[in-house]
Structure formats: C-alpha cells, structure tokens
C-alpha cells in the first residue's frame, strides 16, 4: 500500500475504486492533546505506538507537535520542530523507510523541517490560512497537502461558532483554500480536503456535515475525515471519556466509506481498519 501510494502523482482519487480507504493513525507528540496528550512524547513510546499501528494496518502516520484541541494555545515553530523531528527521524531509522508520514502543522517552518526529516505529506488544519508560505512549500517540494476547514483558531473556535448553512459555508471556504493552493502552484492531484469535524462546529454542524459527506466527495477532491473520539459523539452516547468513543468513531468511518471518503484520521487503527474494510467490501458489491 505504501509504495503504491508513493508511486501515484498525489492522493488516491474519488474515481479510483481499486484502492481501499486509507487509515491515518494519530501520533500526538504533545503534552496536552485532548485524548492522548503526553503519552507519546518520548521516542521509545512513540516508536512502540508506530509499530503497533503498523501491525494493525495503518497507511499513514500523522505526527503533530501542537495540540489543536478547543482552547489550546499556539506552540512556537521551534518547539514544534523540537518535538516532531526526532520522532520522524527515529521512525525512518528504526521502523521503516517506506511508511508514509504526514506532518500536522499550520506553520511552513515546521512542515519544512518535518519534510527534511522524512515526512511525505503536509496536513494543515488552517487550510493554508495561518501561514500561506506552507502552500508555496507544498508546491516547491511537490508533496501532497491536506487542507482542512476551521472557523477561528483552536484557542477560540468553540466560543460561539455559527453557520447559516454549514455544508455550503464549509464548501465555500474549502474552495478558497483550494484556489489559493492552486495559485501557489500546488498540483490539483496533490490536494485533499477535510471538513474539520469539531473545529469551530456545534454538535448539529458536525452531524449535518457527516450527513452530507456526498457533497464534499462531489468536489472531486479526496476527503480526509477526522471524527476520532470527538466530544460531539460523547454527547450523543452520554459518555465523557474519549476512550469510550472507539465504537462511535468506527461507525462514522463505515458511513464515510459508503459516502466515498478515501482517508480517515483515527486514534484506534485496528477498529477503524476493520470498519473501513468491511464497509469497502460491501460498497464494492453494489
């Protein structure tokens, strides 16, 4: 899967039915992420988690050095680099030189350092708005970039989010990010988009987006979906611990596959790999 993905010009495309959905495993090397903060900040712990995810069928490891949970403060580029680069280098040296790694950052300096250390993909939750130079970097290096929608910054995004028509407004904002990336020189096949579930969204906004994933798929760009262990599902399931939302996350993965989503960013690889594969097999039988 990894070599097949790397041989392609960019992301798997919506019309490419030969490739099963990709599972992106989350590796937060931060002290304060909402679900797993502090667990993988050391190299040994991070490598053990990567090895586990690889054994469970992960396709991409997404490494972030800055928490984007609601209310979180920004982290300087130098601190992010100090957190993520040694981990990326260790993965390349100790686990696999072929495994795909995405760098979860909004800053071009961090993305550049991560790519130099061996990352393959940029995952920008600001959709290129926080630091437009990240789009130029993606264009010059030719690496794929994921552009996510968010309303506001992580510090303030859940203070009072509001939409008149969340699906259309998210699509409009993503189109602006796409156009900016294309203008910067990023190839169309190197762009994927993410609706940003939980990023400046109310519970109903998240549900509306999940109910209309087909509208996102219809853009023709590959979609990354990130619902993993998120709070809005806890309000539905009447649980407060993120770890209790593994099954709920897998349900959204299966629904996403049926809607045509190609990539899923998750904490729990095994469960979501199974959900994606079963849904994919069912969809192939249509």
Sequence-ordered SSE layout with sheet pairings:
Blueprint: H1 2-7, E1 22-28, H2 43-55, E2 60-64, H3 77-95, E3 100-104, H4 108-117, E4 121-124, H5 133-141, E5 145-148, H6 166-184, E6 191-194, H7 203-211, H8 213-217, E7 224-225, H9 231-237, H10 246-259, E8 263-266, H11 269-284
Parallel strand pairs: 1-2, 1-8, 2-3, 3-4, 4-5, 5-6, 7-8
Helix pairs in contact: 2-3, 3-4, 4-5, 10-11
Main sheet properties: 8 strands, parallel
What strand order characterises the main sheet? Answer: 6-5-4-3-2-1-8-7
Distance between the termini: 24 Å
Mean model confidence by pLDDT: 89
Tell me the helix content: 40-55%
Could you tell me the radius of gyration in angstroms?
Answer: 17 Å
Number of helices: 11
- Uncertain runs: 1-9, 33-37
The succession of helices and strands, N to C, reads: HEHEHEHEHEHEHHEHHEH
Task: Please report which band the strand proportion falls in: under 5%, 5-15%, 15-25%, 25-35%, 35-45% or over 45%.
Answer: 5-15%
Give the overall shape, derived from the CA principal axes: globular
- Helix/sheet category: alpha/beta
**How many strand elements?**
8
């Amino acid at each position: 899967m990894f070599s097949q993905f790397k041989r392609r010009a960019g992301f798997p495309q919506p019309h490419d039915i030969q490739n099963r959905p990709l599972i992106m495993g989350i590796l937060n090397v931060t002290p304060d992420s909402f679900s797993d903060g502090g667990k993988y900040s050391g190299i040994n712990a991070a490598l053990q988690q990567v090895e586990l995810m690889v054994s469970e069928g992960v396709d991409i490891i997404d490494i972030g050095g800055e928490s984007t949970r609601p209310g979180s403060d920004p982290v300087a580029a130098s601190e992010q680099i100090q957190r993520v680069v040694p981990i990326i280098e260790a993965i390349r040296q100790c686990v696999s030189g072929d495994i795909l790694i995405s760098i979860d950052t909004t800053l071009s300096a961090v993305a550049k350092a991560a790519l130099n250390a061996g990352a393959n993909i940029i995952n920008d939750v600001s959709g290129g708005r926080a630091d437009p130079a990240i789009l130029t970097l993606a264009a010059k290096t030719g690496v794929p970039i994921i552009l996510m929608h968010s309303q506001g910054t992580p510090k303030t995004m859940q203070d009072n989010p509001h939409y008149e028509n969340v699906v259309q407004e998210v699509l409009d904002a993503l189109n602006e990010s796409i156009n900016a990336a294309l203008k910067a020189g990023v190839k169309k096949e190197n762009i994927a988009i993410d609706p940003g579930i939980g990023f400046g969204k109310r519970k109903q906004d998240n549900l509306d987006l999940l109910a209309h994933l087909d509208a996102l798929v219809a853009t023709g760009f590959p979609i990354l979906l990130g619902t993993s262990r998120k709070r809005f599902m806890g309000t539905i399931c009447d649980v407060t611990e993120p770890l209790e939302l593994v099954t709920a996350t897998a349900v959204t993965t299966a629904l996403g596959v049926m809607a045509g989503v190609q990539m899923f960013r998750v904490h729990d690889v095994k469960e979501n790999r199974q959900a994606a594969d079963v849904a994919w097999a069912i969809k192939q039988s249509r």
